[in-house]
Write a structure and sequence with these properties.
Elements: E1 2-10, E2 16-27, E3 36-40, H1 47-54, E4 66-67, E5 70-71, H2 77-84, E6 87-90, H3 94-97, H4 104-114, H5 120-133, H6 150-162, E7 168-172, H7 180-197, E8 200-205, H8 208-212, E9 217-222, E10 225-231, H9 232-237, H10 242-249, H11 256-261, H12 292-296, E11 302-304, E12 309-311, H13 316-320
Parallel strand pairs: 3-8, 3-9, 6-7, 7-8
Antiparallel strand pairs: 1-2, 4-5, 9-10, 10-12, 11-12
The chain binds iron/sulfur cluster (SF4).
Iron/sulfur cluster is lined by residues 241-242, 281, 283-284, 287, 289-290, 294, 299, 313-315.
Keywords: ATP-binding, Nucleotide-binding, Transport
GO molecular function, one term: ATP binding
Pfam families: ABC_tran, oligo_HPY
Length: 325
């Protein structure tokens, strides 16, 4: 039940709080060790806020974040620092996440220096090993980020994230800023590293076609809440929330016969403001299936069908076509 609200202030000197941006508005999920949870939604849905709250770049307003039996939401000082070492993040834009004034060897070494990973020699050896692990040549170590392509920079960012041997990696849109031609290479690398180092991933993307080949389970987020959560294949085969169906409608199917037959939901309008969240079901202002009850009553996020599939919609059976089953 994680919540992250940012207060809005008014007044130059005597500031008063006039409202809140509800970036995360009661989110719950779990990730099994060694698995990947895909977190999907449009820009502004709160995905990145979840990532940042998990690594405590933001302190949650409410809720708990359990990691290995400890509540990350309340840890402070040395205990927080130790936990953070075990959870690392890969950011969307490899052009912005690497400081252009440092060589890539210093950038990869930095977390090891901060966390006192070993002697100078051990750190140097590990930098070269990490470069090999992510498919870059060790002789590149003394070059600067601007000497590399986007795909290579993201490999450097991945090497940096792995430097202190984390158990969990949060990848926030790791391929969105890359050319389509190199996306598959970076995704394959991430998958290979997951197997090699038994990593657990939270993989964030606005693109369901990217997550499809990567995640074990998928959570769909809308305006600060998870509206659907299911095993990957189940979610693609039987979406139970109109928003998920709309996101899936945007993913092209290569077979023209199937493409022609499938039922679609095309989204209209923009995401409402997280300052004024619509009443009842927060998706009702854009939902083509909305009824009177949707404007008044917030649907519960509850198990549907096989019990591992969760959705928050009054008419989820209608969405999935299982109404009469
Ligand atoms: Fe649409 Fe109503 Fe379901 Fe919300 S509860 S997604 S408005 S049908």
């Amino acid at each position: 039940n994680l919540k992250l609200y940012f207060p809005l202030y008014r007044g130059l000197i005597l500031q008063r709080v006039t409202g809140h941006v509800r970036a995360i508005d009661g989110v719950s999920f779990s990730i099994e060790r060694g698995q990947t949870l895909g977190l999907v939604g449009e820009s502004g849905s709160g995905k990145t806020s979840v990532a940042r709250a998990l690594v405590r770049l933001y302190k949650p307003t409410e809720g708990r974040i359990y990691f290995d039996g400890k509540d990350l939401a309340t840890l402070e000082g040395e205990a927080l620092r130790n936990m953070r070492q075990r959870i690392q993040m890969i950011f969307q834009d490899p052009y912005a996440s690497l400081n252009p004034r440092f060589t890539i060897a210093s950038l990869i070494a930095e977390p090891m220096v901060i966390y006192r990973y070993g002697s100078k020699q051990e750190i140097q050896d590990r930098v070269l090993e990490l470069l090999r692990v992510v498919g870059l040549r060790p002789e590149y170590a003394d070059r600067y980020p601007h000497e590399f392509s986007g795909g290579q920079r993201q490999r450097i960012a991945i090497a940096r994230a792995l430097a202190i041997q984390p158990e969990v990696v949060i990848a926030d849109e790791p391929v969105s800023a890359l050319d389509v031609s190199v996306r598959a290479q970076v995704l394959n690398l991430l998958r290979q590293l997951q197997r090699q180092f038994s990593l657990t991933y939270l993989f964030i993307s606005h693109d369901l076609s990217v997550v499809r080949h990567f995640a074990d389970r998928i959570a769909v987020m809308y305006l600060g809440k998870i509206v659907e959560l299911a095993d990957r294949d189940e979610l693609y085969a039987v979406p139970r929330h109109p928003y998920t169906k709309a996101l899936l409608s945007a993913v092209p199917i290569p077979d023209p016969k199937v493409e022609k037959r499938r039922s679609r939901i095309i989204l209209s309008g923009d995401l409402p403001s997280p300052i004024n969240i619509p009443s009842g079901c927060r998706f009702h202002t854009r939902c083509p299936m909305a009824q009177e009850i949707c404007r008044k009553e917030e649907p519960r996020f509850e198990p549907k069908g096989n019990g591992t599939h969760y959705a928050a919609c009054h008419f989820s059976d209608k969405v999935s076509g299982t109404e009469d089953a």
